[in-house]
Amino acid sequence: MDTLLHAKILLAADVESLKTGSLDQRYVSKAEHIIGGESYQLVQQFVDQFKGKVNIAGDISTSSVLRALSVFLEAEVIKAGQENEMLFLAIALLQTFIQNNYTGPAARLNAVSGLFSKTEAETGAINKALIRSLAIMGQSAYELMDDPLYLVLSLLLLEQVTGQGSLFDTTPGEEPSLPVISPESTSAWLAVAFWWRARALLTHLSLIPEPSGFQASVAATIYQSTDLAHAVVKELPENVDEHFKRQLYAAYYLENVKCSLAINTEHLCLPSLTKVKKITNFEFVMTGARATRTKYQQKAHAGLIILAKSSTFQNVAVNAKSVAPEIFTLESDLLLEKPHFESIADEPLHGQIYSKRPKLDLDSGYEEDKLLPLALRQENIPKSLLDLDPNNQPALSDYDNIQLLLRLYTIKNTTPAKDPLVEEELTALLSRILYQDGAKDWSVFARSLWERSIIETTKAKTIERGLLQMQSLVEELDIKIQSKLIPSLDEINVASRLSYIHQLPFLPRWELDATLAEKYMSLGILKSAVEIYERLGMACETALCYAAVGDEKKAEEILLQRIKENDSDARAYSIMGDIKQDPSFWEKSWEIGKYVNAKNSLARYYFNPPPKSGIQPNYSATLKHLNDSLKQYPLSFETWYFYGCVGLQCGKMELAAEAFSRCVSLDPYHALSWSNLSAAYMKMDKLKEAYSCLKRAIASDAQKNWKIWENYMLVAVKLNEWDDVLVACRQLVSIRRDKAGEGSIDLPIVEKLVELLVTSEYPAETEMFSYFQKSCMEFICNTLPQVVTTSARCWRLVARVELWRKRPWASLECHEKAYRAVSHNPDLEIDEKVWNDTVDACEDLVAAYESLGEMEGKYGPGSLVCKDWKYKCRSTIKALTSKGKGRWDDSPGWDRLIEARNQI
Known about the structure:
The protein is built from 40 helices and 3 strands. The chain is mainly α.
């Protein structure tokens, strides 16, 4: 039953049914406190029990405080047989920290003064030491957070209960052991402990500006396979229904996506999103519908809409008496509060096309396994969604709303910022969450309002509402807000705010404020932005704010003051180096904190030194700095990609192959990484591997990259994969024909294809053409004539294929076009080479008339290809001699023409 209790805590589900069982009721009571948003009571009991028990030996420093806490836990808390007590305490500490810094309202406890029994001044010094202990790779944790002790204790306890090495005392170059989880050897209790440790590590990562360090690697390892959920589910009691088990799997996959977003591996989100969608039986699709958006609009125009319906998991978490955040209306005399959609089913079929993206394949149907499944036509919309009223859709379950939000974050992280088409898609997602009736979870609804506000602040007609809504949401957290513009709510349900905090990407209160400052900055309200950054104590952001508007001197002053106050802030040193382009600051940043961005900046500096530096590019130094960076943070796709490009540049192909292999493992759909990996293999004479990589590249959204297709074609030629050569040739012509014209045709390759075709046996009437024959004929005889303008050589190739097809009349037409292409050259009368080429073409045409003219023509028996072929031969020669008379009548070409005329 312990497993079921812990599973309910993971899901924040009701434990009322466990009060009458054989389970230890002390644990049930603890679980009730945690799920009910009263974790702080367990923390208070812990502080009261061990009041004054933590003793610091010597001066107050980061190491002395951590040592004192470790000694205290070892002596007083960590005891054999008490692992469950330790896990409950770790969970309560983590949840209380999150309440105080993320969801609000803050629980007013002071555990530091209780456990340490120090004066107020010493308590402040201990808090600063605890905050310094949460720094990762030279990046300081946010210095004005509340109660860092709770998170530090939670992390220490979770390291103990999982039996893993501590991440607080890792030395440079040392890699901690990564957890190994399997459903056979890992107990359910241990899997739960690992699960909470991953949650705590993601909380820790959210305290620093950029993800880095071993915390990201450990969290990713815990979440990397479903064995975590399998290990918990396998030990649940037999009477637990499948519905509850599916909830656990759904929560796992949602947190897996959250982890990928947190550590910048968002390209791995889609598989987990697809799986959780199937687990919850969630149905949704994006399509087009006509809508009116203003009060005076008479005619509806095309817009985007999400049609969605939940099947399971209604009201998963305990969120009774949930009070949704206040929504600010648009208060516009022009715009509607929300678009009014016309019924999709009443619109003509041709109007149901999702028309916001150009050149879509309208014949493609409903594509389910995408971030945004699209239905391009009415008949592609699933029947269960087609009946929905677009203006009054049913309420979605909280898990399904979270799925939409996570898809929104994935799209934001993988698409260009401020793209109007992307913003329309995001708005459609948010509208589906916000404009639904029924009970609303505070966290899910507040996050949706926040994301909508960010989009609205980019548009003149909605910016006022967006900024006011952002200000309101910051104030509703009820955390460290000095003066409020919005009246406080009377009722705050802490449990509701914490229900889904571990499935949604973390947004600490200071990050909300900082985002508001960024919005002020983007609007040119520099003073307000700086005031917020200064209030938040974000010196680096303040400096970047001034640097962004060109006041680099002020930025340097702020950074120097920051370094003076905290000489261990590696990020401040690195930003100073970025502004001054001075390698000494980056080297200092790396020395004091192993800050990976400092190494990346050094690598870029030596790869492409500024002109004023007076130094030459140094690829060896670049590779060394990138290697140091990747040792510390191996999950950085951008760093691996740069590393591989430098390897290609300086001829280190094995290094480049390793780098791009890591890139494609982090993002299996990055076409350029696959292409560059193939380039490295080609240089290493590994053609089959290169060919395989190029196949992955062209399958990974590279349909318009002609260089990748050209490489694919050349490798396929070397491997005699002629079907693929033909496909690549066709694609190259399709991509480049508008800009390069007949330059898009690779004639030597096309000649080889033609040779293969015409040397194959033409099928009998009862036989079918092979795939190659059919495709090659279509390409040579239909596609190429639409592209060719001046290439006689290309027309002759078409003529050969037409003759092989037993269409001599079409072959003769191609010979005529080949001759015209050459004879219309304006250099004919001044350039002897052009004259000789034209004579050659004339001889070819005369030979074609002679050999094809008397064959059976287009209209069957009795018809000829060219009845008057002799006349046409003489006319062609006569026309050419007229052009060359007086200029080329003493040339060898002239003599050949006269001889050809005499032979007719």
